[in-house]
Amino acid sequence: MFEVKDQVGYITLNHPEKRNPINIDTHRELKECFDLCDYDEKVRAVVIRGAGGNFSAGGDLNAMKTRIDSGVRGTRQVCRAGAETNLRLRNPRKPVIAWIEGAVAGAGLALAMACDFQIIDEQSKCLFAFVNIGFVPDSGTTYFLTRAAGTVRATDLLMSGRKFTGKEGADWGLFTEAVPSDHLESRVRQYVEKYSNGPTVAYGNIKAMINRAQFGSFADGLEAEVECQGECELTEDYREAVTAFLEKRKPQFNGK
């Protein structure tokens, strides 16, 4: 869903019964929303959130299972689309605020980290779930995470696939701020009020300077994701893990 209200563009991931998964259609629609926000001078700030009490559970495993059962390869396309979406999100010269509650995982975490500010419920459940289905991180995750938290922390989170809280993530530098759930909305509103009424041109130039300093080699990281994700898509471990997740059982990996 997309609406503009009081000079703010509100983008809402709206598939709450599945915890707002992100698939190739989502990426297309998100980029359309980013274009609208970027080119509309009436929009001075952007807020991204998920419907139904969760930000996003990440990649759409039902779509993955459909591709597996049909013998169709589509991961490279989705992987590239995810990184391109988040790179597009970096480009609008307007402050972008992630309003994060509930579950946030995988590509959903990458989307949040691509924003300028991340305000999260301190009890939110977070995980980089890629390895749990035999995949490598996509959507620019490795690029964002190593810069936010460093190599040691990134290695731990990406290889373990373990859960962590919103508060832990903020302490490690993944998010701007973690607050109690009953303060989350009011804190987001404070950010919205500040950044939708500030020096817009200065904000845009600061963002452009940060992008030049930090994202010059993003394209190289994208190509690595696409290549490695395509290789993982052909493994038995990937097929087993996706099937096991949907069947609510523990996967049996064989390293092939």
CATH architecture: Alpha-Beta Complex
Q: What share of residues is helical?
A: 40-55%
Query: How does the major sheet shape up?
Result: 6 strands, mixed
Give the termini distance in whole angstroms.
40 Å
Mean pLDDT: 92
Describe the strand arrangement of the main beta sheet, using strand numbers.
1-2-4-6-8-11
Number of helical elements: 10
CATH fold description: 2-enoyl-CoA Hydratase, Chain A, domain 1
The percentage of residues in β strands lies in 15-25%
Number of strands: 11
Uncertain residue segments: none
- What is the global morphology? globular
Structural description of this entry:
The chain is α/β, with parallel strands linked by helices and 256 residues long. The protein has one domain (2-182, 197-246): 2-enoyl-CoA Hydratase, Chain A, domain 1 (Alpha-Beta Complex), CATH 3.90.226. The protein is 52% helix and 16% strand. It has ten helices and eleven strands. It has helices spanning 24-39, 61-70, 75-90, 106-114, 141-160, 166-172, 184-195, 200-214, 218-233, 236-246, and strands at residues 2-5, 8-13, 21-22, 45-50, 58-59, 96-100, 103-105, 117-121, 125-127, 163-165, 177-179. The strands form three sheets. The chain has a six-stranded mixed beta sheet with strand order 1-2-4-6-8-11, with helices on both faces. A three-stranded mixed beta sheet has the order 7-9-10. A hairpin with a 2-residue loop joins strand 1 (2-5) and strand 2 (8-13). The radius of gyration is 18 Å and the shape is globular. The model has no long low-confidence stretch (mean pLDDT 92).
